[in-house]
Amino acid sequence: MSSKKKLNFEEFMALHRHWMWANIMREDFESELAKKKVLKHPFPDRIGAYMSLWYGMLFGVLEVVKNKQIDIPGLEDMNSIYKPLKLFRNAVFHAQPKYWSPKLFEIIEHKDSVQKIRQIHGALGEYFLKTLRSRHGNWGGGSGPDNSI
What is the phi/psi pair of residue 38, to 5°? Predict the structure, then answer.
């Protein structure tokens, strides 16, 4: 888990919290999805809300990972969905002039986006878990001389 730029402990924990919020939305999405027999248009109901919040919050984590150039195993293919996921996030967190904004559909129409998002989400979870386990004895800060992780 090398990185070109390091996160300090505070940045790491803030990013982890954001991923945890995304994970809660993913879990709620999965729970609601399991209750449905037929899925027509997910956006106007709970499933759409949870999926939209999950994807939007996940993008927030990916944005930091990309900007800080953090090397995380399993994120090698992140760039293939980065732009469509960013557009989706923008449509979710910024009211759009059109109900069916094209920004909502680029990620949905992207080949293998569901599998890629799940894989990326899981890789981030593994990164946070492994990093936290390796630093368990040092909760007061990071491991580096500059308090970095």
Answer: -130, 135
Which pLDDT tens digit goes with each residue over 30-59? 998 898 776 666 678 888 899 999 999 999
**Tokens 């879990």 found at:** 27
Cα distance from N-terminal residue to C-terminal residue, the chain? 10
CB 46 within 8 Å of CB 36? no
**Residue 64: how many CB atoms within 10 A of its CB?**
16
DSSP 41: -
Q: Is 109 exposed, middle or buried (0-12, 13-18, 19+ CB in 10 A)?
A: exposed
How far is Cα 37 from Cα 45, in angstroms, rounded to an integer?
14
* Domain range annotation of the chain: 9-138
Tens of pLDDT, residues 58-98 = 999 999 999 999 999 999 989 999 999 999 999 999 999 99
